[in-house]
Amino acid sequence: MAVKKKKVKAKAVAKKVKKVNKAKKVEAVPARYGTATAMLVVSPCREALKFYENAFGAKVLGVMEGFGGLVVHAEMLIGDSIVMLNDEMPPMPPMPGGQAGTAHRSPKNAGSHSGGVMLYVPDVDSAFKKAVDAGAIIIMPVSDMFWGDRYAQVEDPFGHVWSMGTHLRDVSDKEAQEAMAKMMPGPQGG
To answer: Where are the beta strands (DSSP E) in the chain?
Structure first.
């Protein structure tokens, strides 16, 4: 009789565990992230986080330190988007079955820009001023653009280019193409 009770109890526990595991299904894309999330290499990361707080109103969500006090992973929230960051890193040893890693460098120390981040904001003029007042370098002043945005670009002290815009009007692909053609030098352009 005792053996039968133990089997019944074990089945009940297994059923509960199965139910709990089913209820806590892990999502392939965690709810707090979008499908694409920017990852920036900055140096030093802690200074960059402070700059982004001042320039873009970022909220630091977390910082993970690794060897030598370097930030191996940090997350900040700008508007409704998470941006991941880390300090520059030396090449990592190869993972099992993989290749040796490459060094991670910030654009400033790599000597080039390889991309940027686009911010849509309610008021690009004030966002641009805030970024410049915090120490960003003007790449492109605020202007009304042919694709329907009021738009600007700045470079942060760590070498990353930040585009920012406020969408003013919807423009069809055809209208945008025609407007761009007028701007270009040559037979079709201005």
So the answer is: 39-41, 59-65, 71-78, 81-86, 116-120, 137-144, 149-155, 161-167
Tell me the CA distances in angstroms from 163 to 59, 76, 111, 131, one per residue in order: 19, 17, 19, 11
Q: What element of type H or E holds 20?
A: helix 2-23
pLDDT digits (tens, 9 = 90+) for 96-154: 777 777 778 889 888 888 789 999 999 999 999 999 999 999 999 999 999 999 999 99
In degrees and rounded to multiples of 5, residue 159 shows phi and psi of 95, 0
Domains of the chain, each with CATH number or no CATH: 31-183 (3.10.180.10)
Does residue 30 have a cis peptide bond before it, meaning omega lies within 30 degrees of 0?
no
Structure tokens belonging to residue 55: 């320039």
For the chain, the average pLDDT equals 86
Q: Are 61 and 81 in contact (CB under 8 A)?
A: no
